[in-house]
Amino acid sequence: MRRLAFWGAAATIVYGYVLFPLLILVRARLRPRPPAAADIEPDVTIIVPAYNEAATIGAKLDNLAALDYPAQAVEILVASDGSTDATAAIVRRRARPGLRLLDLPRGGKAATLEAAVSAARGDIVVMTDANSMFAPGALRALVRPFADPEVGGVAGNQVYLRGGVTEATAAGERGYWDFDRLLKRAESAAGNVIGTTGAIYAIRRELFRPLRPDVSDDFYTSLAVIDQGRRLVFVEEAVASEPVMATRALEFRRKVRVMTRGLRCVVAMPQLLDPRRTGFYALQLASHKIVMRLMAVPLAVLAGASLSLLGQGWIYRFTATGQAACYALAAAGLALARRPLGRRPFLAFPAYFVLVNAAALRATWDVVRGRRIDRWEPPRTRQVAAHLHPLPAAGAERKPAVARAGDPGSTAEATETAEVEEASA
After folding, report:
1. SS3 295
2. What is the Rg, in whole angstroms, of the alpha carbon atoms belonging to the chain?
């Protein structure tokens, strides 16, 4: 029984971390199906949901104003979810054509996004976070795959900023996204990516579905695109940058929230796990969002089984020793998180590995016991906000000044006659 548990756990771990990624990469080589992208300029609405984002919204608006895309084809819609700070005031002060404010009562992110999509005028809706800064060509790159009528959604490329973050887990986070980006390229080349990131993604407006308050909005919207028979592809050139969470505690809470809400998305759309309906995507979804989310279980089983079998072969001793070394490095990485040594890859990656699996286990338990995470409060900190600067672009000298956190008076008005359009839901 102990041997069966050992080899079953080992097989699950090897499949999740080795065989499944290899399958994705090989499939992209053997069955390429890239979307028919082209240089198009459809009408776009960029939606920025915001709750108490006074520290970042000014820089965000400057950043969006500098995008390389025809201004007359872009609508920027800031949806304030009952913000109690100067968020709405800052948007009003930056009044200009194409900028609209939805100053909504507090209703949660799901209700905020639904109101914003209902008010959107563009054929393509782009979702983005208030602290995510677009590269100048990001929007143009993001819409190119929509030239293919089979494409219903496009995932952009989230890049984490370097520098200024003291936690070792930040290095692990960036390393994880580097690997995830490799898989997204391969998935997109042969079919569909699993989902999008809230930092930057786009969908055809008619494909948006009403959201449940207990799900991850970006992942649920991604699944809705697949459920309606359209493709979801990845564009690496559509770059949005943002800082990693400044502390291990913030990062852990964020991951638990995202994973819990992500698992609830799968529960809400179980039909996508049927290969007769979604083909290879069913295997992708099950592998990435179920097997990988539950990986802490086979890891624990492997550790216990290998220790109980130490005297029955070198493979068990090797496995026990390897796991002990990995977890010792992770412990050191977590303990030294605020020191330069803790940010070295040989400590940062094991620390991040343990953090992710602990968060996944907590998220799974939350789903099993029916705990919902409905409340939306972005975990901004002074350290995170300090990283938010719009990326440079031609004509940047004509942009309004960047607002200081909590100081709406520091924003510059665009013109004396322009007015921000306001709507409510």
Report:
1. coil
2. 22
Cα angle, residue 235 at apex, residues 223 and 123 outer, rounded to 5°: 65
Give the number of other Cβ atoms within 10 Å of residue 271's Cβ. Answer: 12
Distances (CA, A) of 25 to 176, 234, 353, 392: 17, 15, 22, 35
Neighbours of 180 (CB within 10 A): 15
Q: Are 50 and 128 in contact (CB under 8 A)?
A: no
Helix (H, G, I), strand (E, B) or coil at 159: strand
**Inter-CA distances, 341 with 320, 328, 334, Å:** 26, 15, 11
pLDDT tens digits for the chain (425 residues)?
889 999 999 999 999 999 999 999 999 999 999 999 999 999 999 999 999 999 999 999 999 999 999 999 999 999 999 999 999 999 999 989 999 999 999 999 999 999 999 999 999 999 999 999 999 999 999 999 999 999 999 999 988 776 544 455 566 666 677 888 899 999 999 999 999 988 999 999 999 999 988 888 999 999 999 999 999 999 999 999 987 665 667 778 888 888 888 889 999 999 999 999 999 999 999 999 999 989 999 999 999 999 999 889 899 999 999 999 999 999 998 888 778 787 787 888 888 899 889 988 888 888 888 877 666 566 554 444 444 444 443 333 333 333 333 333 333 333 222 334 333 33
Question: Cα–Cα distances in Å, from 204 out to 118, 147, 153?
Answer: 13, 11, 7
Task: For residues 365 and 379, give the distance between their C-alpha atoms in angstroms, rounded to a whole number.
Answer: 22
Kindly report the pTM of this predicted structure: 0.82
CB within 8 A of 107, min separation 6: which ones?
81, 82, 115
Length of the chain: 425
Contact 214, 261 (CB under 8 A): yes
Q: Give me the sheet containing 99-104, strands edge to edge.
A: 133-134, 231-242, 151-160, 201-204, 124-127, 44-50, 74-81, 99-104, 421-423
Amino acid occupying residue 223: L
